């Protein structure tokens, strides 16, 4: 007979001597939800919630099974009851099936699975994994010291005898091998370029395309950007889901984003790629954080870096099995390389008496089979990983005028390192040979092919250098972060100049249309108004930039619609409005003070009055107060109300970096179209109310129709343009990536076309909403080459952050 979930949960909580509030604090589940569960007031229970409560109560395996059985409505036998009755402890029963999800959560899970499958299918095709066939990826069991005990991997109870789990297989059976692991936790080890990323892509696709789909949606996360000292794993996963799938920013009935609900409901299978790319001083913290979880996951890493983290943490990834990728064999090379050449055989190829034309790779393969000299040793050491074989294929099989026999020249390539560097250095020139880039799966062709390989290599080198940080190196090449490598003072100067130009042009345009001022006076007023207001805006930007620690402005996950909804403001609309109003009030007040100074100074100069005249000083102070209040209240009101017009983006809006850029461009355009007239009306008509309230206190104040419309229009147009350029991701892209960096010669004038072209040529890959270099070794090589050519850049250093005394 099935136990009642509420009664059982209350009994287990009482046994743990915990109150509902204490359980809520430990688990993160609200007190209201716990009360509903214990009282039977809700039947829509989720396994993820029950697992959180079980963790908070510190339950053993048997009690966890009782909870799971109560949730699913099935009977729970004691662990291993059948075999223990025969005097032989056995493995614990398999965990109960996940309860079905319905409604919005099921729809979100299905949409995510569809989008993940579509993306990685496209990426596999882009990388030409199946041309002519996938390179073999094989593995062996990881060393016992780098995996957990078999009893823990199989989640056995006390005294359980582990069964033998066969983890052997190859690329074609990766999903089947993973499903053999009872805990669902796997570590994939391998040296650089050994095929870990390709293996994870195949695992994800096989799990998604299985006739019996995995209950969790497998999602690949590049874990190298995670800082466990500042961000919890759950929060980081949610942030990455929101970045790559903005439609998951929609709110559930409980108020949380769909991304948070999917993670909390245990509907995501994290595939964490690149543990070795986490900063050295943070790997122990990262492993400790992963060991604090029990969720199924897959982790990839180079062996040495993972082993160091295991030694530092005194434990491997708990409950995790492990495999280690092995090198390619000579037979693998002999099967693969000749089939990558489809052109005319070279002079060094032979038919071996068969009458069949030989391959340009014959000389290399013969040396590998029979050679004993330095050339054989170097080649045998280099051509052992899929990465180096792909580089060799690109450089020789796909470049008609290159002969792989030159790899045997020990004068040019006397060492393994020189051969490595040759293949890495030749990749960019090979993919940038003069040809039109291929169309993508949708039939689109990159807008502008870049055939100048030397220039392309310099620009890719700058992008690789841009990813360098003082204590770590990132892999995610995000279009909205391309200006991050510029000093903070340079970025601030760029946005000050953008604001100066915007407000000056707005002043001149509105003055020509609305005021009868002479041209010279109008030009003078605009020349004063722009810099004064621009500097004031720069102060607002610098303050905001410092408050967020210099972090880049994230892309908008929303779009604007004129159909305002209560849900747009979230669960706490008054709080949302108050926060937006406060930000707008401060920024607008500073802008108003700047405009007041410029207006007073301009009129004083036009009238020939000294700026030190007491009347001018008094008028300036009054104008600063009045315009500060007018601009501040107007900005606060507009920004607060604009939150009601925001809704999450569509499902496919962030399918690629280019589509995310287009989505943000459209959002920024709508923001300007809404902000400009809203600011104008709020300043013009709101000014009447404020002037009326201050009339008796400040003396006679003048706020005529012409002045109000002029100041309102200038503030509306110039303020909206300044905001869009400085406080949106698209604005940062325009000011820094489209103007500043091209002027400095670091990027082309159309960086989006350049990035897209580099992706279609194979130099970059797409991971969600960002680009990455084809391989981290290529990124390192290009970055080093760039710094070697530009001596004004200091060599990159990677100093691990302090971890205290432990």
Q: Strand count, sense and closure of the main sheet?
A: 6 strands, mixed
The main sheet orders its strands as 1-6-2-5-4-3
Helix content: 40-55%
Number of domains: 5
Q: What is the general shape?
A: flat
The tally of beta strands, per DSSP, is 10
Uncertain segments: 74-97, 352-356, 564-571, 793-806
Distance between the termini: 51 Å
Q: How many alpha or pi helices?
A: 29
Strand content: 5-15%
Rg estimate, integer Å = 32 Å
Please tag this protein with its features.
single chain; 806 residues; mainly alpha; Rossmann fold; 5 domains; 6-stranded mixed beta sheet; two-stranded antiparallel sheet; flat
Task: Map the helices and strands.
Layout: H1 5-15, H2 20-27, H3 31-39, H4 47-57, H5 61-72, H6 81-84, H7 103-126, E1 139-141, H8 150-153, H9 174-179, E2 185-189, H10 196-209, E3 217-222, H11 233-244, H12 258-264, E4 268-273, H13 283-291, E5 297-301, H14 303-313, E6 320-325, H15 330-336, H16 362-370, H17 374-382, H18 386-397, H19 416-431, H20 453-466, H21 488-514, H22 519-547, E7 558-560, H23 573-607, H24 614-642, E8 646-648, H25 657-698, H26 705-727, H27 729-743, H28 751-761, E9 764-767, E10 770-773, H29 776-789
Parallel strand pairs: 2-5, 2-6, 3-4, 4-5
Antiparallel strand pairs: 1-6, 7-8, 9-10
Helix pairs in contact: 1-3, 1-5, 2-4, 4-5, 7-10, 11-12, 13-14, 16-17, 18-19, 19-20, 20-29, 21-22, 21-26, 22-23, 23-24, 24-25, 25-26, 26-27
Transmembrane segments: 494-516, 522-544, 581-601, 621-645, 672-690, 710-736
Keywords: Membrane, Transmembrane, Transmembrane helix
InterPro entries: Cro/C1-type_HTH, Lambda_DNA-bd_dom_sf, NACHT_NTPase, P-loop_NTPase
């Amino acid at each position: 007979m099935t136990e009642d979930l509420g009664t059982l949960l209350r009994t287990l909580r009482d046994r743990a001597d915990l109150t509902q509030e204490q359980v809520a604090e430990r688990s993160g589940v609200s007190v209201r939800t716990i009360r509903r569960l214990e009282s039977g007031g809700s039947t829509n229970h989720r396994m993820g919630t029950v697992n959180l409560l079980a963790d908070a109560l510190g339950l053993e395996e048997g009690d966890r099974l009782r909870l799971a059985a109560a949730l699913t409505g099935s009977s729970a036998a004691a662990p291993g009851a059948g075999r223990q009755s025969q005097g032989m402890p056995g493995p614990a029963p398999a965990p109960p099936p996940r309860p079905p999800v319905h409604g919005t959560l099921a729809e979100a899970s299905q949409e995510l699975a569809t989008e993940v499958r579509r993306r990685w299918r496209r990426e596999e095709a882009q990388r030409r994994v199946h041309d002519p066939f996938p390179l073999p990826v094989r593995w062996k069991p990881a060393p016992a010291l780098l995996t957990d005990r078999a009893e823990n991997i199989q989640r056995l109870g006390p005294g359980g005898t582990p069964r033998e789990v066969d983890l052997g297989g190859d690329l074609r059976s990766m999903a089947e091998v993973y499903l053999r692991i009872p805990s669902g936790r796997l570590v994939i080890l391998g040296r650089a370029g050994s095929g870990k990323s390709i293996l994870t892509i195949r695992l994800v696709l096989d799990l998604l395309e299985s006739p019996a789909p995995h209950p969790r949606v497998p999602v690949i996360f590049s874990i190298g950007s995670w800082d466990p000292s500042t961000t919890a794993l759950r929060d980081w996963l949610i942030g990455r889901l929101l970045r790559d799938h903005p439609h998951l920013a929609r709110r559930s009935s409980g108020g949380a984003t769909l991304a948070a609900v999917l993670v909390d409901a245990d509907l995501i299978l994290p595939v964490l790629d690149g543990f070795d790319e986490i900063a050295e001083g943070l790997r122990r913290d990262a492993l400790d954080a992963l060991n604090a979880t029990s969720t199924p996951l897959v982790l990839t890493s180079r062996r040495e870096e993972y082993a160091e983290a295991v030694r530092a943490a005194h434990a491997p990834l708990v409950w995790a099995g492990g495999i280690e990728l092995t090198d390619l064999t000579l037979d693998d090379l002999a099967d693969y390389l000749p089939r990558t050449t489809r052109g005319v055989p070279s002079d060094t190829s032979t038919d071996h008496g068969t009458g069949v034309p030989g391959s340009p790779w014959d000389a290399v393969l013969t040396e590998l089979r029979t050679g004993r000299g330095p050339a054989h040793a170097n080649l045998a050491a280099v051509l052992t990983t899929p990465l180096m074989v792909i580089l060799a294929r690109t450089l020789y099989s796909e470049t008609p005028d290159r002969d792989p026999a030159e790899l045997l020249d020990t004068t040019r390539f006397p060492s393994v390192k020189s051969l490595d560097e040759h293949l890495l250095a030749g990749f960019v020139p090979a993919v940038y040979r003069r040809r039109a880039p291929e169309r993508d799966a949708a039939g689109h062709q990159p807008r502008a092919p870049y055939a100048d390989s030397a220039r392309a290599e310099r620009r890719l080198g700058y992008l690789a250098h841009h990813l360098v940080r003082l204590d770590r190196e990132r892999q995610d090449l995000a279009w909205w972060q391309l200006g991050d490598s510029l000093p903070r003072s340079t970025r601030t100067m760029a946005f000050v100049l953008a604001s100066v130009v915007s407000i000056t042009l707005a002043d001149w345009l509105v003055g020509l249309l609305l005021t009868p001022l002479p041209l010279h006076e109008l030009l003078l007023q605009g020349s004063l108004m722009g810099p004064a207001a621009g500097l004031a805006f720069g102060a607002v930007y610098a303050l905001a930039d410092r408050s967020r620690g210099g972090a880049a402005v994230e892309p908008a996950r929303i779009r604007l619609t004129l159909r305002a909804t209560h849900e747009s403001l979230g669960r706490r609309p008054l709080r949302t409005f108050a926060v937006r109003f406060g930000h707008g009030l401060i920024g607008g007040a500073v802008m108003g003070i700047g405009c007041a100074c410029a207006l007073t100074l301009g009129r004083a100069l036009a009238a020939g009055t000294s700026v030190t005249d007491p009347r001018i000083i008094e008028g300036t102070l009054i104008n600063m107060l009045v315009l500060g209040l007018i601009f501040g209240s107007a900005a606060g009101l507009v920004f607060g109300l604009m939150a009601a017009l925001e809704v999450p983006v569509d499902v496919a809006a962030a399918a690629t970096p280019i589509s995310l850029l287009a989505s943000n461009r459209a959002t920024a355009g709508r923001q300007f179209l809404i902000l400009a007239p809203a600011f104008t009306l709020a300043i013009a008509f709101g000014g009447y109310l404020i002037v009326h309230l201050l009339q008796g206190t400040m003396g006679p104040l003048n706020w005529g129709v012409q002045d109000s419309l002029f100041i309102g229009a200038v503030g509306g147009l110039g303020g909206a343009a300044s905001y869009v350029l400085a406080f949106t991701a698209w604005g940062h892209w325009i000011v820094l990536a489209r103007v500043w960096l091209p002027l400095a010669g670091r990027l082309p004038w159309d960086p989006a076309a350049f990035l897209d072209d580099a992706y279609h040529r194979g130099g970059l890959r797409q991971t969600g909403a960002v680009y990455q270099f084809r391989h981290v070794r290529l990124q390192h090589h290009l970055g080093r080459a760039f710094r070697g050519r530009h001596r004004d850049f200091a060599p990159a250093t990677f100093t691990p952050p302090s971890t205290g005394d432990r």
